[in-house]
Amino acid sequence: xxxxxxxxxxxxxxxxxxxxxxxxxxxxxxxxxxxxxxxxxxxxxxxxxxxxxxxxxxxxxxxxxxxxxxxxxxxxxxxxxxxxxxxxxxxxxxxxxxxxxxxxxxxxxxxxxxxxxxxx
Length: 120
Description:
By secondary structure, this protein is mainly alpha-helical. It has a single domain (5-117), classed as Globins (Globin-like), CATH 1.10.490. It is 61% helix and 0% strand. It has seven helices and no strands. The longest helix has 17 residues, at 79-95. The N and C termini lie far apart (39 Å). The relative contact order is 0.17.
């Protein structure tokens, strides 16, 4: 039996490190998207994101947050915002040594949420 992407990456602890790096070193320093997090409790956001990414990568279902469409409602995110976040996720995963094949698989799953996130 092949390991899930979640297991290959190293489980929730490893994904938590990726999420910390993703926000602290990339997203919050990017003027293209950091304004969307100005009034966000980042510890809560990181916890939610870790659980969501863990679930999306085949880990245990711990994510109990809003749907993607509901969570992004009223934000009017544009394709360039979505693409910036995807690029940051790519960089964060690569920073922690995730293979390009596994990154591509993860980003394909993220891309499937695009229509629920942009123009909401």
